[in-house]
Amino acid sequence: MIKDVNHIGVAVKSIETALPFYTGTLGLTFEAVENVESQRVRVAFIKAGNCKIELLEPTSPDSPVAKFIEKRGEGIHHVALSVDNIEDRIQDMIEKGIQMIDSTSRKGAGGANIAFMHPKASNGVLVEFCEKAAKQHDN
Ligand code: CMX
């Protein structure tokens, strides 16, 4: 099932430069910063009610986010929707003729399973399916 908006990804040149607007000016709460090597980005999560804002800073010139900033400048990069059973959701989209960038999920920030839909299939918006990582045992 597709549930709600998990986060909105915002492409920025520098997390350090962008963060004070969100935490200082807007007064939102910074949660964590993480390197997502597979995507060649460093991400910072900011809590905004039940949703999050994910600042995405490229860590390499061949990162998809570096290409995005070069072409379009900083700005909204993707919308991530929370889903259950991500592999079923991906298959469902493929059966409906939707062009998926990922035909199986991969690991994203926080250990979540993620998959992207091509923006051409969704009105020019890069949509991410995001399935939360299974909770770790504390012991
Ligand atoms: N939102 C909307 N449109 C986008 C886009 C985005 N984020 N990124 C690229 N596009 C558009 C481009 O403007 C271009 O449109 P036109 O053909 O009309 O000019 C088209 O898509 C092709 O773009 P491109 O610059 O030639 O780039 P590629 O085709 O090489 O790659 C994409 C585009 C979406 C397939 C690639 O960026 C991708 O695979 N993205 C998914 C992975 C990703 O973005 N990872 C970073 C975030 C990771 C995370 O959140 O953890």
Summary tags:
single chain; 139 residues; alpha+beta; 2,3-Dihydroxybiphenyl 1,2-Dioxygenase, domain 1; 8-stranded mixed beta sheet; 8 strands; 22% helix; 40% strand; globular; binds carboxymethyldethia coenzyme *A
Task: Please provide a written account of the structure.
Keywords: Isomerase, Metal-binding. Its EC number is 5.1.99.1. It holds the Pfam family Glyoxalase_4. The longest helix is centred in the first third of the chain and has 11 residues. This protein has three helices and eight strands; from the N terminus they run βαβββαβαβββ. The protein has one domain: 2,3-Dihydroxybiphenyl 1,2-Dioxygenase, domain 1 (Roll). An eight-stranded mixed sheet has the order 2-3-4-1-5-8-7-6. It is of the alpha+beta class. 29% of the residues are buried. The site of carboxymethyldethia coenzyme *A (CMX) has 21 residues, from β3, α2 and β5.
